[in-house]
Design goal:
Length: 167
């Protein structure tokens, strides 16, 4: 693809490879593939693809317990998604930042980031990431309030038809 000058396709194939590694839990391999995709996307000024690559790279770094590196990649992904005016992925980045805050034992920051992500996801009707955000909200809630949140979330999870979420 590089030899043909199909730079966007080359980046997307590398990113798909990185996402496959990530799904398989092969975080080091995902990191390498996504870092390469991000570098090539930046080189060819493919901003939105660079955002996806940086975002996926951040997820791989979280899997490798490199929280600082993940935060830096989320900053870069935010810049790319903001330039592309991609509200959904800006919200997904906030959701991932909330997860980072939880890992860093910063529950107040996590709650603020999560609330902001939920507002954006609800306004855009992006149901799958909204379901993930609502499940994280359940995790952050005090034990006494979790059942109420899960009950309210039930119809959304059922309508999505994603077995992992229904479980």
């Amino acid at each position: 693809l590089a030899e043909l000058g199909a730079h966007a396709e080359e980046v997307r194939v590398r990113l798909a490879t990185g996402r496959a590694y990530l799904a398989a839990g092969l975080y080091a391999e995902a990191r390498a593939a996504c870092a390469d995709a991000a570098s090539r996307a930046d080189e060819h000024e493919l901003r939105h693809d660079a955002g996806f690559a940086r975002f996926t790279l951040a997820l791989a770094l979280i899997g490798l317990d490199d929280l600082s590196g993940a935060g830096g990649e989320l900053d870069r992904a935010t810049a790319h998604f903001a330039a592309a005016a991609d509200r959904q992925y800006l919200a997904r980045v906030r959701l991932t930042r909330a997860e980072l805050a939880i890992l860093r034992d910063e529950p107040d920051a996590a709650a603020d980031l999560l609330a902001e992500a939920i507002r954006t996801l609800e306004s855009g009707s992006w149901q799958v990431p909204l379901a993930s955000a609502r499940l994280l909200e359940v995790d952050l809630a005090p034990p006494a309030g979790r059942m109420e949140l899960l009950t309210a979330l039930g119809p959304l999870l059922h309508d999505l038809g994603v077995p992992e979420l229904r479980h």
